[in-house]
Amino acid sequence: MKIKKIETSKINEIDFNNLKFGSVFTDHMFTCDFIKGEWINPEIIPYQSINVSPASRVFHYGQACFEGMKAFKDDNNKVWLFRPDENYKRIVKSSIRLAMPEFPEDIFFEGLKNLLRLDSDWIKPGLGNSLYIRPFIFANEGTINATEANQYKFMIICAPASSYYSGEVRVKIEKSFSRAAKGGVGYAKAAGNYAAQFYPTKLANNEGYQQIIWTDSSTHQYIEEAGTMNLFFRIGNKLITAPTNDSILDGVTRKSLIEIAKDEGIEVEIRPLKVNELINAAKNNTLIEIFGSGTAVVVLPIQGFGYENSRYELIQKENSWAIMLKNKLNNIQYKLIEDPYNWTVEV
Ligand code: COI
To answer: Taking a C-beta distance cutoff of 8 angstroms, is the pair 22, 132 a contact?
Structure first.
């Protein structure tokens, strides 16, 4: 693999104490091209703008997908990835759904590890600090017939990260717009899934919510996910999360929390949750916690939600499961405890 290093690092210009999620990128990036049926020219080069044809199909038909993963530094300055095989499998799944070629596993991991080794100074130790890694694939063939392209680019860029949200988060349960439909691409990390959420989310933002809880597109009666995170509901003494299906992303954090919660003796129910059940639980005070999970947000406690014209507030509880699960997960990710699941992979 060709590696072209930067001449001078820009790391000293970065204020690592005031990072806005996804706005600062490390010195290098990984790129690889799919041309004439083959992935060729894997290389690491200085982070820079790229040259693409304005006719690239990604701009016209949205043929693109991505992943979100994280690297952490432990107290001995070792760098660790968290379940990277899951992200690799999911980008393949997303690519297949979008009629894009599968990116080879060996090049994925070689490129990723070389990139992280080169930019390892950008990964700061300490709880809360991480490197957010964004692998993505897009169609860069410069012809606009509406079929799958023959030419693609795979890239990895990395952004040092601290928290995704600051402040309290309230969500709106959406009844009119839909994120994903049966048989659609909701389970894939398709770029277009995110574009389609921006307008309804903007409307929700204007009503004072940070995010939307999406419901199923046919009846709007069942809770799905929040678009940038999966959702967990603590009702009574149970933790409930929707089963993944073709309209819900199979989150890596989600599945990790389910395992940790079960091992902590929490009764986890993976089942469809009706909006009505949630409203009733809120009304009779059995709804104790709601939290989101995702690579970017990790575990995000939600303070309240809105449905139709009513707003519901959650009372801050001691013994929060969200905080307990987040701490357990972080302890594994930052190698503060033994990783009993073998989820961490040294770079
Ligand atoms: C992630 O958690 O990696 C996500 O995909 C959310 C992202 C769109 C910020």
So the answer is: yes
